[in-house]
Structure formats: C-alpha cells, structure tokens
Design a protein that fits this description.
By secondary structure, this protein is of the alpha/beta class. 47% of the residues lie in helices and 14% in strands. Helix 1 runs antiparallel to helix 2. The mean pLDDT is 94.
Length: 218
C-alpha cells in the first residue's frame, strides 16, 4: 500500500488499546478474571463478546454480562463489584505493557494536535499515561469512558478541539464506524488488533491499513 501523507492532517485521533499500548490481551484476560467466579462458560461468553466488540467501554460490556449472559435484572452492587474486579485485573498490565514505537518521531514530524479517544476508563487512562510519561504527546486531551467514542468525537468536534483534516488511528471495527460517523479519515493499525479477519474487513470496507504507528515514520 502506498504511503499516507500523515503530515497534512491538523488533528490525529488515537485509540489507546492496540494502537498506543499493546494492551488488548490484558483487557481480554481481565474480563475473564473479573467474572470467572460465575464459571468458565459465562466468563468465556463475556470474553467472546468483548473481542467481537472491541472499542466499546467496559461499562457497556459489564451491563451486557449481567443482562444477556447471566440473564439477571440490573444490580448496582454486582455491577460495581465487577467493574472493580476488572479495574484491579487490568491496572498492573497497563503500567507494564509495550508502548508503540515511533510516537516521539511522529510527533515531531506531524506538528498536529493529538488526542486519545478510547473505550478505556478516562481516569485510569490519565493515570497510566501520566505515570508512563505519555501524556506529553496528547496535547488535545486523553479522553475515555464512561462516554462512548461517538459522544467524545462529537463533543470535541463541536468544541473545535478536533480540526479538519483529521485522521483517526484505530484497530477495531467500532473505531472505523466511529470515525465514519464523525466524518474523520481512518486508518486501521493491524499489529496488535484482535479483530479476526481484519484483512477481509479492511478490503471489504476499502480501509487503508498499516502495521503500526512506526509505519508512518519509517
């Protein structure tokens, strides 16, 4: 695939998991750890739902687990307990997982505003990015759930924090859909994606795809 002139964009919007951090598998395992006390089958069902719906927040997925997998009415105490279990399981991994190569070089090359727009918990992301000295790159903000990506993008565009031309770098089907809804250009990064058949997905949707952030600085 031909090179993409990433320097022409005024704004770069990054997903976090699988794009900036190699954390997809950490979150997948955390969903299992948070729910395994209900048994293997329910926990695995949540893992399968999570993988099929990458980029959607933990809040929505835990609600799905309660209503659609456990077939229970919503219970606030259970909901908060599962969220706490998930957060505990994921935190250490986010502090130690691989960081995408090429961030510093790309920041110098592009001179554009950068934002994180993630399905991850916003407070958790900000803590991790600060501790790992990543917040220095994202001058447009580090944004996450409980608001979903559609809401976040709409809000930041309305506030003129995202200026066109803008490019969204993601690794999930939902990232692609959110970018399309917000009228942002999109590239699919495949190095760490958990989307099965991502090649076919990109081909059928005519999406440009690259391995990683490093691809834009080589």
């Amino acid at each position: 695939m031909s090179k993409l002139d990433i320097t022409r964009y005024q704004t770069l919007v990054f997903d976090c998991d699988g794009v900036v951090l190699n954390s997809n598998k950490i979150k997948t395992q955390a969903f299992y750890e948070a729910t395994k006390h209900f048994g293997h089958e329910p926990a695995q069902a949540l893992v399968d739902y999570h993988v099929q719906n990458g980029g959607i927040s933990r809040y929505a997925k835990v609600k799905y687990f309660i209503s659609e997998i456990l077939k229970q009415e919503f219970d606030e105490a259970l909901y908060q307990d599962l969220l706490a279990r998930f957060a505990q399981a994921v935190k250490d991994g986010l502090m130690t997982c691989d960081i995408a190569e090429g961030l510093a070089e790309l920041k110098l090359k592009t001179k554009s505003k950068w934002l994180i727009v993630s399905g991850g918990d916003q407070n958790e992301l900000r803590e991790v990015f600060s501790a790992r000295n990543l917040n220095q790159y994202f001058d447009g903000g580090i944004l996450g759930s409980p608001d979903n990506k559609d809401v976040l993008l709409e809000r930041e565009i309305s506030a003129q924090n995202i200026a066109n031309p803008a490019l969204f770098l993601g690794d999930s089907k939902y990232d692609s859909q959110a970018a399309s809804l917000a009228h942002l250009n999109f590239v699919f990064l495949n190095q760490w994606t958990e989307v099965k058949g991502w090649e076919e997905f990109c081909d059928s949707n005519e999406l440009r795809n690259f391995s990683s952030i490093q691809s834009f600085v080589e």
